[in-house]
Specification:
This protein has about 325 residues and is an alpha+beta fold. It contains 10 helices and 11 strands. It is about 45% helix and about 15% strand. A hairpin with a 2-residue loop joins β1 and β2. α1 runs antiparallel to α2, α5 packs across α6 and α7 packs across α9. The C terminus is likely disordered.
């Protein structure tokens, strides 16, 4: 069997160890060193083998890129359910592959892909030509400082209180933006701090509504009788100010220890007490909440009229 066929067979069998032997030392694949390329494949293949929800009887199906490297040939690795773990361009010489890289605009010649999985991913720091700029170095130091501050607080206190994480989020929220998802470049050094900000930024923002939650809770407690009619207006207003709370929270709460856990981080529960109660009430009476909140509809209508005034065409 030729070397190229052995490489394809290793991909089909999720055998990264064999790819480590077959791929060339000193060569780059997908713009990263061979060692980095194989290490990422090892991690990805391990996840695929351990996931019992998918079949792993993958076969290499010929195809080509239809966009960035239009016309370049390669293979998509598809199981018997039509699911592809990845489509890749294989640039080749007579007896070897000179480059192998993931393709997100791939079309197979004679078989349809029902679902394409994410595949492997590399950060800018992984690339062979990566040269950090002064901005990168400064940003990396700031990310490292943010993570160290947070993890030191967790280690020292065992739990995060708003006095710490509200100011921490305010200081470091610029390191994480939803816009990062839509850029071609991502940096490993931002990964950890972004993970913490995904968790803590919504908590910090919702705490700004604590006073409103307290007022709504006091209003609810004052109802002499709970019926659909008596609390209908309250439900609409509460749902408007706290959207998605009717689906309850996913937090694992421990009332005795005054904490809830999110993303393995312990958060002071009592600081979210009013908000937690609003969530419980909205969830309990969620069937009484209109599918389309009239306050939100009115807000959208005003916004659309303002747009019409600005752009009357």
């Amino acid at each position: 069997m030729s070397k190229k066929k052995l490489i394809l067979k290793a991909f089909e069998e999720l055998d990264a160890e064999m790819l480590d032997v077959l791929l060339n030392d000193g060569q780059s694949y997908q713009d990263v060193h061979k060692e980095t390329f194989v290490a990422e494949l090892k991690s990805y293949f391990s996840d695929l083998r351990n996931d019992r929800d998918y079949k792993t009887d993958f076969k290499a199906v010929r195809g080509m890129c239809t966009n960035c490297n239009k016309g370049k040939k390669g293979y998509s690795f598809i199981n018997s359910d039509g699911e592809s773990f990845m489509s890749m361009v294989f640039e080749e010489s007579d007896d070897d592959y000179t480059d192998i890289y993931k393709c997100s605009s791939f079309k197979t010649f004679d078989r349809e892909i029902t679902e394409e999985w994410v595949g492997i991913h590399f950060y800018e720091e992984d690339k062979v030509d990566y040269r950090p700029t002064e901005v990168h170095i400064r940003e990396q130091k700031e990310c490292d400082r943010a993570v160290k501050e947070l993890e030191m607080e967790i280690k020292t206190e065992g739990i995060l209180s708003k006095n710490f994480y509200v100011s921490w989020v305010s200081t470091y929220r610029h390191l994480h933006s939803i816009g990062d998802i839509f850029t071609d470049k991502s940096y490993r050094y931002k990964n950890e701090v972004s993970g913490y900000l995904w968790i803590l930024e919504p908590l910090a923002e919702v705490l700004e509504k604590s006073d409103l939650a307290r007022e709504l809770l006091q209003e609810f407690i004052a109802f002499p009788l709970i019926t659909h009619e008596t609390i209908q207006d309250w439900l609409i207003r509460a749902d408007y100010h706290f959207p998605y709370y009717k689906f309850a929270t996913e937090y694992k709460a421990d009332y005795q220890q005054d904490l809830f856990i999110t993303g393995r981080i312990k958060i002071r529960l009592s600081e979210h007490w009013y908000l937690q109660n609003i969530a419980v009430i909205l969830n309990k009476y969620s069937n009484w909440i209109p599918d389309y909140n009239p306050l939100k509809e009115a807000e959208d209508f005003v916004a659309s009229e303002q747009d019409d005034d600005m752009f009357p065409f």
